[in-house]
Amino acid sequence: MKDILFQYLKNYTNAPDESLLDVVEQVPIQSFKKGTLLLEQGEVSSKCYFVLKGLIRQYFIDSDGNENTSNFYSEKQVAAIYNPQQVHKASKYFLACLEDSILLVGDLHDEMQMYAKYPFLETMVRKMMEETMANAQDNYADLLVLSPEARYLALLEKRPGLAERVAQNQLASYLGIKPESLSRIKRRLNSLK
Q1: What percent of the chain lies above the pLDDT cut of 90?
Q2: Structural domains in the chain (count)
Q3: Residue that wins the pLDDT comparison between 84 and 26
Q4: Which end of the chain is more exposed for a tag (fewer CB within 10 A), N or C?
Q5: Model-level pTM?
Q6: What is the pLDDT of residue 5?
Q7: Taking every annotated instance into account, which residue ranges of this chain make up the domain Cyclic nucleotide-binding (predicted)?
Q8: Nearest residue to 98 via CA among 54, 59, 135, 130
């Protein structure tokens, strides 16, 4: 399964294959059962995850006790909640496995040692973070300017198959709408088929 990570990393660097293989071999693979909390709101995050198989939900609980979904991470995506400038800052989010998952688990405390050993990693990680930030900005813009139906259609286009893997209330929360509204949107779109 580590070949999936190897191919993913090759998209962000032209480092020699041997160096990339060394990096990949140092990252442990772990299996997690559906429902496992990888991170709890209020904890200090020290891990990052690369999804080989499965699905992770990022969410927070607001002051009224409501769960608010802010992201989903599926195959070939990185889930990391940390700020390198504030390493002891508590997370505002939970990370939970929505499916049985196989993840590569990186330790953020080892990051500087890895950068020293493999200088290309710092540039590669920066490129990955820039892409992640651009996607987050696009998703936020969609949330602000698109109608609920257009947000749902955009999700179906950008993340094929995700809607079938996620509970409707979690998907509605991610889209910024009520579950009943999502049901109406789905019914309307199905009637047009």
Answers
A1: 60
A2: 1
A3: 26
A4: C
A5: 0.88
A6: 83
A7: 11-57
A8: 54
Q: Residue for token digits 């198959």?
A: 161
CB 52 within 8 A of CB 1: yes
- CATH of residue 6: 2.60.120.10
Query: What's the pLDDT at 19?
Result: 92
Contacts of 56 (CB under 8 A, 6+ apart): 38, 49, 72, 73, 74, 79, 95, 96, 97, 98, 101, 103
Location of structure tokens 């660097």: 13
Residue in the block written with tokens 């889209």: 175
In a domain, 166, yes or no: no
Nearest-10 crossing angle of helices 179-191, 168-175: 100
Domain of 55, in residue numbers: 2-118
pLDDT per residue as tens digits for the range 80-116 = 876 555 656 888 999 999 999 999 998 877 888 888 8
